[in-house]
Amino acid sequence: MTQSLVIAVDGPAASGKGTIAARLAREYGLPHLDTGLLYRAVGMKVLADGHDLADEAAAVAAAQSLVPTGLSDDERLTTGEAGEAASRVAGYPGVRAALLDLQQAFARQPGGAVLDGRDIGTVITPDAPAKLFVTATPEVRASRRWKQLTARGFDIAYEAMLTDIRIRDERDAGRGAAPMVQAEDAVLLDTTDLSIEAAFDAARRIVEAARAKHGL
Ligand code: DC
């Protein structure tokens, strides 16, 4: 079977992985799935239905009934509250199992696809020919997220942002179910000192090397 250009982009919150994934998708004319939105939608559904995030059965039910359309247009999913709720429900194996098929189906599209998240290169598409693990220091990530949110009118302190990022890193990397970890064959891209332009350029070079290696 000929391989298609599946690009797996993993990394912690506010590392730049979403922007890089979206730009790679545009560059190669591929569909893009921000898988964090799936977990954000599940977390927000649990809260909207009046359940506690500690209620695993409610979270699994929300994941099983998720309609994954229009998520990128839903402003509520971009908030810190949604990110926190996502990180909580993402620890439940039943939630991850319920979201597995749709992510794998997305990756199997003819021609390929770009997916970004935490476990794309390790669990969702372990055979992806191109894998990136995008990271940056917690301080730089907190400052990026703080700038994004304050620019949109949210009133939030930088220190609170940094604490939130650290808690989220710990939870995402420390959970038993599909923890955030760099796949053995993923290329590390540290964006701490890089502009968006420079980070995208580096990402494109990584994908070009993978294409050459796999004849894609
Ligand atoms: O990438 P993001 O900030 O939108 O992700 C929100 C949370 O969802 C993140 O803290 C962990 C979880 N997540 C996950 O566990 N697996 C993914 N593939 C994507 C996100």
State the major sheet.
Answer: 5 strands, parallel
Kindly estimate the percentage of residues that lie in beta strands according to DSSP: 5-15%
The count of β-strands is 5
Radius of gyration: 17 Å
- Strand order across the biggest sheet? 2-3-1-4-5
Tell me the CATH architecture: 3-Layer(aba) Sandwich
Helicity range: 40-55%
* Termini separation: 13 Å
**What's the CATH H-level homologous superfamily?**
P-loop containing nucleotide triphosphate hydrolases
- The SSE order reads EHEHHHHEHEHHEH
* CATH-assigned fold name: Rossmann fold
| Total domain units | 1
Rough outline: globular
Count of alpha and pi helical runs: 9
List the helices and strands and how they pair.
Elements: E1 5-10, H1 17-28, E2 32-34, H2 36-48, H3 56-64, H4 80-89, H5 93-107, E3 112-117, H6 120-124, E4 130-135, H7 138-151, H8 158-174, E5 187-190, H9 196-214
Parallel strand pairs: 1-3, 1-4, 2-3, 4-5
Bound molecules: 2'-deoxycytidine-5'-monophosphate (DC).
Residues 13, 35-36, 39-40, 83, 86-87, 90, 117-119, 168, 172 line the site of 2'-deoxycytidine-5'-monophosphate (DC).
Task: Describe this structure as you would to a colleague.
The protein has 216 residues and is an alpha/beta fold. Helix 2 crosses helix 4 (80-89). It has helices at residues 17-28, 36-48, 56-64, 80-89, 93-107, 120-124, 138-151, 158-174, 196-214, and strands at 5-10, 32-34, 112-117, 130-135, 187-190. The chain has nine helices and five strands. The model has no long low-confidence stretch (mean pLDDT 96). Strands 2-3-1-4-5 form a five-stranded parallel sheet, sandwiched between helices. The two termini are 13 Å apart. The chain binds 2'-deoxycytidine-5'-monophosphate. 2'-deoxycytidine-5'-monophosphate is lined by residues 13, 35-36, 39-40, 83, 86-87, 90, 117-119, 168, 172.
